[in-house]
Amino acid sequence: MRAAAGLLASDAPLATAYDLALVDLDGVAYKGHLPIEHASVSLTAARSGGMRLVFVTNNASREPEDVAGQLTGLDIPTDPDEVMTAAQACAALLTTRLDPGAKVLVVGGKGLVTAVRSAGFTVVDSADDEPDAVAQGYAPEVGWTQLAEAAYAVGSGAWHVASNLDLSLPTARGFAPGNGALVGAVRSATGITPDSAGKPSPTMYRLAVERAEATRPLVIGDRLDTDLAGARGGGYPGLHVLTGVSTARDAVLAVPGERPSFLGADLRALLEPHPAPVLTDGWHVCGGAAAQVADGGLRLDGSGIDLVRAACAAVWSAVDAGETVAEETVPDLAVSA
Q1: Could you state, in chain order, the average pLDDT of each consecutive group of 10 residues for the chain (337 residues)?
Q2: Could you give phi then psi for residue 131, rounded to 5 degrees?
Q3: What residues contact residue 75 under an 8 Å CB cut-off, 6+ apart?
Q4: What is residue 3's predicted lDDT score, i.e. its pLDDT?
Q5: pTM of the predicted model as reported, rounded to 2 decimal places
Q6: Torsion region of 276: left, alpha or beta (phi above 0 gives left; psi -120 to 50 gives alpha)
Q7: H helices within the chain, ranges in order?
Q8: Nearest in space to 107 (alpha carbons), one of 158, 42, 68, 73
C-alpha cells in the first residue's frame, strides 16, 4: 500500500497546519451579494485558531475598503489591509519596468485608478498623452471609447498590462463578459498580447504572503483555471471548495497545472483533517470510498468528498501514466454541503 500522487494529506486541520489562508471571494466567501453557507463560521473559527486571512480577488474595479465592507456585512469582519486586489497586483507589476511618475493610461474602475496612483504613477486618459503603459481592468462603465484609447496607445508602443484575463464574470443573471473578454478586444486590434497581474499569475499570492510575512500559506479557491492554477504556478498548496464555478467532476478531469492539493465541499474543510487516497489492490481508497481506472473508464464505489478524492487520485495517476480516461465515464459527483 502506498500514498497516491497528487492530493496531499494533513492529519491536522488545515487551519492549524497553515498560518495564512489566501481566500478567493466570489464562490468561496460569498456568491454575488449573498453569503455562502458555513463560510462566516468557518473563517471565524480558523482565525480564532491562529490562521491569518487575506482575501485575494481578480476584481480590479473595487477599492479594498469596499471589499472589506462587504465581507464585514456578511459577518466576516475584515480590514482593508486584509484584501489584495488585482488592481494592486497590476500596479506592483508596473513598478518592475516603469520609473516613478511615468504616465499610465488606466482603463477600468476607481480601484485600479487608486492603485496606479498610489504606486507613484501619473494617470492619463488619452493615447494622445503618450502613456508609457496601459493598465486595463474590468469596470461596468468600460466601453468602446476607452478600449479604442487603449488600442491606440498600445499600438504606439505602450506596455499593455491587464489586471486579469478572466473571460467571464459571474453575476446574479448569469455569466457576463469579464476583463479577459475586454482585453481581447484590444489584443485583436493591436495583435499584442498583454502581461497579466491577476490569477492565474501567482503575483497576488506572492504579494499577500510577503505582506503577511507568512511561512505556511494555503490558497483557497473555487476556480481551477485561476485560483488553483495560480497556486500551482506559485508553488503553494491549494484547497478547492465546491461552492463556486469548478465542480467536483472538473477537479477529477483537471490538467496537471490546475490540480488542487486538497478538496472540500465548503469552507468547513478548513477545520478538518484531510486524508489522501492510498493505492490498494488496484483501487485508490479514501475513507469508505474507492475508485479505479480500468479499460479506459472510471469505476467508483462510495459517496461524498472522499469519493471525489479517490476519483481524482485514480484519474490523475492514470493520465500521468499515459493512459486515456473516457470523460463520459466521469459522473457529476455531487457532494452535499
Answers
A1: 66 98 95 92 97 95 94 97 95 96 97 96 98 96 97 98 88 85 98 94 92 96 95 97 95 97 98 96 96 97 96 97 96 80
A2: -65, 150
A3: 35, 40, 44
A4: 37
A5: 0.90
A6: beta
A7: 14-17, 39-48, 64-73, 86-94, 110-118, 144-155, 179-190, 203-212, 229-234, 248-252, 304-320
A8: 158
Question: In whole angstroms, what is the distance from residue 260 CA to residue 337 CA?
Answer: 19
What are the contacts of 144-149 at 24+ separation with CB within 8 A?
146/107, 147/107, 147/182, 147/185, 147/186, 147/189, 148/189, 149/105, 149/107, 149/125
Question: Rounded to an integer, what distance in angstroms lies between the CA atom of residue 202 and that of residue 176?
Answer: 24
SS3 content of the chain, % helix, strand, coil (to 5): 35, 25, 40
Provide the 8-state DSSP code for 226: I
Q: Provide the pairing of β-strand 289-294 with 297-301.
A: antiparallel
pLDDT for position 222:
95
Q: What pLDDT score was predicted for residue 337?
A: 55
C-beta separation of 253 from 333 below 8 A: no
Return the SS3 of 167: coil
Instruction: Supply the angle between the helices 203-212 and 86-94 in degrees, to the nearest 10.
Output: 90
Q: Round to whole Å and give the CA distance between 54 and 79.
A: 9
**Phi, psi values for residue 265, rounded to 5°:** -65, -35
Q: Residue length, the chain? A: 337
Q: Are 56 and 89 in contact (CB under 8 A)?
A: no
The 8 Å CB, 24+ separation contacts for 69-72 are 70/30, 70/33, 71/25, 71/29, 71/30
In 3D space, the residue among 205, 149, 212, 147 whose CA is nearest the CA of residue 177 turns out to be 147
Contact 101/120 with Cβ under 8 angstroms?
yes
Contact 284, 12 (CB under 8 A): no
Distance CA 150, CA 155 (A): 8
Strands 174-177 and 168-171: antiparallel
**The three grid cell numbers given for residue 111, joined into one nine-digit string:** 480601484
Q: Which residues make Cβ contacts (< 8 Å) with residue 173, sequence separation at least 6?
A: none
Give me the active site residues, please. 24, 26
